[in-house]
Write a structure and sequence with these properties.
The chain is an alpha/beta fold and 382 residues long. The chain contains twelve helices and 13 strands. The radius of gyration is 21 Å and the shape is globular.
Length: 382
């Protein structure tokens, strides 16, 4: 795999001294991370953060753009970079599922460094002319399915579960990817599809003759949310105020997961991680408005009780800030144990595993489920 680097530095800042207050945050001269490709939100965030890090601390962020989940995660796995500004695939890598249920992967020792928890949301985008008012109304309707993207597919599956539905209850229409499934609404090939509220195509749907509507998933419907998170454990309730067909003054009850997520591996130096988080917190005002959605990295927005264990360095900083709680520590301990169970079961499995790729993944998923259940953990993915 060929990699191309982008070095990010603020113009004119090469000779700028670190400001008062920055001296107690020691950082490497260069920090390397992989991220989404040029033109993406993740890459724009990297530029904004990189400019701040250079001007305040003299540190250069070297970004390795990747076009897909594997090309972003591979440099972290092989040590080319120490961090990845990734999407939800980083969680799947930690779980050893979907693309990562393969011989060259397996569960990875992924740890969260900092999350971007924005004002956008995720849910079901529907054509306003389809007569669909609730998730339950999707029964018998045409629903887009992005067969080449497990992350998208499982999100829609979870939303169907919110209304106690499955793919068997709808007319699934297959598309090659996420954006194409949304374009299916424009083309009147489907009535609904999973979407992030800020995806560009949504604005086209809103202005089209079909119009756009979002289906609500209110947090107070606890039974529905239990079904939802039983399929997609990484989502949380969220009041969404950003996106087409959404009035910022009247946010909609929908869902969210952090995106992007700055991640590293468990063995990464604790002090370095702590100082990176401290630097992002101290320099937040310098980059929060420099790219759309960059304000999502605010330290007070972090979802401490999530599905991915935190880096010890992040935990150290959260404790300094008085954010860390007994509940967060209990969740952290459980997730660290889960990660150990997964990695140990993989190491026991992989040497005698089937050679056939499909048989390998099927066997691993069974072994994985048995190991998690034996250790008292939820399986989620089978």
């Amino acid at each position: 795999m060929n990699f191309r680097w982008t070095s990010i530095a603020a113009a004119g800042c090469l000779a700028m001294a670190a400001p008062v207050g920055a001296q107690d945050i020691e950082l490497p001269d260069v920090i390397a991370w992989s991220a989404y490709d040029t033109g993406s939100a993740g890459h724009a965030h990297s530029i904004a953060i990189g400019n701040m890090m250079r001007s305040r601390y003299g540190t250069t962020i070297r970004v390795l753009p990747g076009r897909n989940d594997v090309s972003r995660m591979t440099p972290l796995k092989n040590g080319t970079v120490d961090y990845c500004l990734c999407g939800i695939a980083s969680y799947f890598a930690g779980e050893g599922v979907f693309l990562f249920a393969a011989p060259e992967w397996g569960p990875q020792p992924i740890r969260a460094v900092l999350q971007a928890v924005g004002d956008y949301g995720l849910g079901v985008a529907v054509a306003a002319d389809a007569g669909i008012e609730t998730v339950a109304d999707l029964k018998g309707k045409r629903v887009g399915r992005a067969v080449s993207s497990p992350a998208i597919d499982v999100n829609m599956e979870g939303l169907l579960a919110f209304a106690d539905l499955t793919w068997d209850d709808v007319e699934a229409v297959e598309f090659s990817g996420y954006v194409n499934s949304l374009k299916g609404i424009l083309e009147d090939r489907v009535d609904a599809a999973f979407a992030l509220t800020t995806t560009t195509v949504n604005y086209q749907i809103e202005s089209s003759p079909r119009g756009l509507k979002w289906l609500e998933t209110p947090a107070e419907d606890t039974e529905a949310w239990a079904r939802y998170t039983g399929v997609t454990p990484f989502v949380t309730p969220h009041m969404v105020s950003v996106g087409p067909a959404i009035d910022p003054a009247s946010p909609l009850p929908m869902a969210l997961y952090p995106y992007p997520i700055l991640v590293t591996e468990a063995a990464q130096d604790t002090t370095e991680v702590r100082n990176i988080v401290a630097a992002l917190d101290a320099g937040f005002d310098d980059f929060k408005d420099a790219a759309p959605g960059a304000n999502a990295y605010e330290i007070d927005r972090q979802i401490l009780n999530w599905v991915m264990p935190w880096s010890d360095g992040s935990v150290a900083y959260f404790k300094e800030k008085g954010l860390w709680t007994a509940e967060a520590q209990e969740n952290q301990d459980r997730l660290v144990d889960r990660q150990k169970v997964l990695i140990d079961s993989w190491e026991s499995f992989v040497d005698g595993a089937p050679d056939d790729e499909e048989a390998f993944a099927e066997s691993w998923m069974k072994v994985r489920a048995e190991a998690l259940e034996s250790a008292g953990h939820e399986v989620f993915f089978r």
